[in-house]
């Protein structure tokens, strides 16, 4: 890929000069053991969206790392809310990135994994209909798929974890004011991730959104957070990168800080310093 805005490492040991794609790839890497990496972009004042979408917060350096992280993973995990709202398309990788994966014995494309309690999913959405690898939908035992969904995706049913007591459920099944329609239960994410790993999908990249990140944090399943901080104030209104029920704080040490020449910061937090091994 052609390098646009230069990105340098400024912490822990400053590296002078723009990082190449192989150097960036090595800085993120694939972990030596099963690993869940979460990737978000936020404004300097903590907003998860600008005008309702993440696109306004993301620029060329963020998109570059976003693409590299997709190249590195076995499966790309996304919540149904973000899939619907952001209009997810089929996962695509450049010929160079597909070759990088083939050379390492990986599938040419990562598998898309969608987390949905309601199964309010459109089988005609390009993320399903044009997928290069059959997607997986993590849902719960009682969820009823819409017509055509099982033609384009595998359903994996992960428990019937009850709606928590802090959720308020109205007559429509809508809970906690989040817009999350839950029907009769939540996906048991620990069981779901274990099933992905049983299928050989060890390196997981979660692209959100906030409710899924909150649930993964609450279940203590997050190994790493890659956070891009855009140099702008979004002002009041948008939510944070996490949402849902409160959970205990989790310590997550800072592992590196990259700075792009346009003032964008890319922070990598991970609980295990040895979790990632150089991938290049
Ligand atoms: N800045 C960023 O990097 C970034 C990244 C991603 C998203 N976003 C933004 O975030 C917003 C979307 O957020 P959102 O509130 O819709 O949250 P979300 O986490 O994207 O989606 C919530 C939905 O995902 C499913 N879900 C999540 N966790 C679940 C669990 N444990 N069990 C069962 N289902 C689960 C449910 O789908 P069902 O309703 O199908 O049951 C739920 O309604 C959008 O504005 C998007 O642009 C920003």
UniProtKB/TrEMBL annotation:
List keywords of the entry alphabetically. Answer: NADP, Oxidoreductase
Q: Does the keyword Nucleotidyltransferase apply?
A: no
Could you tell me what this protein is called? Pyrimidine reductase family protein
State the species of origin.
Micromonospora chalcea
Q: Does the keyword Zinc apply?
A: no
Q: Which residues form the Bacterial bifunctional deaminase-reductase C-terminal domain?
A: 34-265
Q: Which Pfam families match?
A: RibD_C
Gene3D superfamilies, per the entry:
Dihydrofolate Reductase, subunit A
Q: Which InterPro entries match?
A: DHFR-like_dom_sf, RibDG_C, Riboflavin_Biosynth_HTPR
Record pathway: Cofactor biosynthesis; riboflavin biosynthesis
Organism lineage reads as: Bacteria, Bacillati, Actinomycetota, Actinomycetes, Micromonosporales
């Amino acid at each position: 890929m052609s390098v646009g805005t230069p990105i340098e490492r400024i912490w822990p040991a400053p590296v002078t000069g723009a990082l190449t794609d192989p150097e960036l790839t090595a800085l993120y890497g694939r972990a030596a053991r099963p690993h869940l990496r979460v990737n978000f972009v936020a404004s300097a004042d903590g907003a998860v969206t600008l005008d309702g979408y993440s696109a306004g917060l993301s620029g060329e350096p963020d998109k570059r790392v976003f693409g590299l992280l997709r190249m590195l993973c076995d499966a790309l995990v996304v919540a149904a809310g973000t899939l619907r709202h952001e209009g997810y398309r089929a996962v695509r990788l450049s010929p160079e990135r597909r070759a990088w994966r083939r050379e390492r014995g990986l599938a040419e494309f990562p598998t898309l994994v969608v987390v949905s309690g309601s199964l309010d999913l459109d089988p005609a959405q390009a993320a399903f209909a044009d997928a290069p690898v059959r997607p997986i939908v993590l849902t719960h035992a009682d969820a009823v798929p819409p017509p055509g969904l099982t033609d384009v995706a595998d359903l994996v049913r992960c428990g019937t974890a009850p709606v928590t007591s802090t959720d308020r459920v109205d007559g429509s099944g809508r809970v906690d004011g989040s817009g999350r329609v839950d029907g009769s239960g939540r996906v048991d994410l620990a069981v779901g991730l274990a099933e992905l790993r049983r299928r050989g999908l060890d390196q997981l990249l979660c692209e959100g959104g906030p409710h899924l990140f909150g649930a993964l944090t609450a279940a203590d399943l997050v190994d790493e957070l890659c956070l891009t901080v855009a140099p702008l104030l979004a002002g009041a209104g948008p939510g944070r990168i996490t949402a849902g029920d409160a959970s205990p704080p989790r310590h997550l040490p800072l592992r590196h800080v990259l700075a792009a020449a346009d003032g964008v910061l890319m922070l990598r937090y991970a609980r295990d310093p040895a979790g990632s091994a150089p991938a290049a």
